[in-house]
Amino acid sequence: MKPAPFDYYAPSTLEEVLALLGQHGDEAKLLAGGQSLMPLINMRLARPAVLVDINRLPGLDYIREDDGMIAIGALTRHASVASSNVLKKSCPMLPHAAQFVGDLQVRNRGTFGGSIAHADPASEFCAVVYTLGGEIVARHAGGSRVIPVEEFFEAPLTTALTPREIATEVRVARIKGAAWSFRGIAPRFGDFVLAGVGIALDFDGEGRCGACRVGMFGVGPTPLRAYKAEQSCVGNRLDEKLIVELAELAATEADPSSDVHASAGYRRELLRWLVGWNLRNASRKHQEEMK
Amino acid sequence: MTRHIITVTVNGTLYTREMDARKLLSDFIREDLGLTGTHLGCEHGQCGTCTILFNGVSMKSCLLLATQADGAKIMTVEGLAKDGVLHPLQESFWEHHGLQCGFCTPGMLMNALYFLTVNPRPTDLEIRRGIAGNLCRCTGYVNIVKAIKAAAEKMAQNKGA
């Protein structure tokens, strides 16, 4: 439970970070909040030769509205996401999801950018960004690029970032209206989910579904969208018959695996229930808002 | 491996020390400063018994490197009592039997201290969620929740007085 030896750098400019990454490549690991990386290092499951601590970089801790999206600086702590008034107004699914991330101490230290770059398949934050749509701003020594979230998550703990890149900002789409819902099921409050679902819906004046997004997490190697269920939703009234159909459809689109916590079949069953619960919850919130 | 010199304030005392890059803050506090009130359980962020205040905010010291504390203000459980007088949280843990073996207590106290600064009048459920990052294998948590609730009332009264 003691880390293997490594060299440690704590640069105060992005240029120095990029130079260190350029020099050390995949020998180096970026250290942000460290709430996932430090356990791996303590248990020696990770043995990076070089740690580049980015906590002393200025100007990466912010949440602001930008061109219809919300821009979140990579070093924004989970606790700031949980309490942000900008997010509560324009993207309430994120602060809602934040309460299920880790525990109080983890939320005090963990960073939003770190959580996205770590790409745990059961991560609430990865799930929300994937569900609502968004993009990740990545910097490297030669410049920067913007990666759509659909292309960002490649496999468990694996993203499109190269060893010489750093994610500096995550942008997530706003939520219009009240018709959203998010819920996961975990063995204990704050633990990794066995299955989770996030939903954002538009309704037209007649009460029929418009754009619909159904995100699933903990039930595949990356966050997933239930595209078939989303398409079947559009243009229809969200009655009980349709909800059951959509839940069935979404469950076929998931790709859960079995482990010590739950079988693949159990995860799929939870997912089916969660899609139904979240659709009913989103629909109820919409109706309350219309009153 | 790189070596580093840091200057850090712990419980109001300024320390300057040199250490290896891989030294955990939890080990630094116990071994280099001799403050053994901070306990180590799992050393990978699961048990919460090494919780300290880092610039006023509760964090698990086993998930921080000592070098990261350069320039920081840290408070450990030794900083709670003042001139031999227990902190209201410590008093309440005593009065409500909020500990049995006491191993988790330093982390419980430090996390509860921070929790009550952000939520000074919590419900039982909020307390339970607030201390979700601190494991106790003796009490079943009931008396810990009672103790934190009683401390909240005491601290609110002290503030009003």
Gist of the model:
The complex is a heterodimer of chains A (291) and B (161). Chain A is α+β, with helices and mostly antiparallel strands. Helix content of chain A is 36%, strand content 25%.
Structure write-up:
The complex is a heterodimer of chains A (291) and B (161). Chain A is of the alpha+beta class. Chain A folds into three domains: 7-53, 2-Layer Sandwich (Uridine Diphospho-n-acetylenolpyruvylglucosamine Reductase, domain 2), CATH 3.30.43; 63-173, 2-Layer Sandwich (Uridine Diphospho-n-acetylenolpyruvylglucosamine Reductase, domain 3); 180-290, Enolase-like, domain 1, CATH 3.30.390.50. Chain A has eleven helices and 14 strands. Chain A has helices at 14-24, 37-42, 78-83, 85-90, 93-98, 104-109, 112-118, 124-132, 227-233, 240-253, 264-290; strands at residues 7-9, 28-31, 50-53, 63-66, 69-73, 134-140, 143-148, 153-155, 158-159, 166-173, 180-185, 195-203, 209-217, 224-225. Chain A has a five-stranded antiparallel β-sheet. In chain A, strands 11-12-13-14 form a four-stranded antiparallel β-sheet, sandwiched between helices. Chain A has a three-stranded parallel β-sheet with strand order 1-3-2, with helices on one face. In chain A, strand 2, helix 2 (37-42) and strand 3 form a beta-alpha-beta unit. In chain A, helix 9 (227-233) runs antiparallel to helix 10 (240-253) and helix 10 (240-253) packs antiparallel against helix 11 (264-290). The mean pLDDT of chain A is 96. Chain B has 161 residues and is α+β, with helices and mostly antiparallel strands. Chain B folds into two domains: 3-79, Roll (Ubiquitin-like (UB roll)), CATH 3.10.20; 88-160, Orthogonal Bundle (DNA polymerase, domain 1). Helices cover 35% and strands 17% of the residues of chain B. A five-stranded mixed β-sheet of chain B has the order 2-1-5-3-4, sandwiched between helices. In chain B, strand 1 and strand 2 form a beta hairpin. The mean pLDDT of chain B is 97.
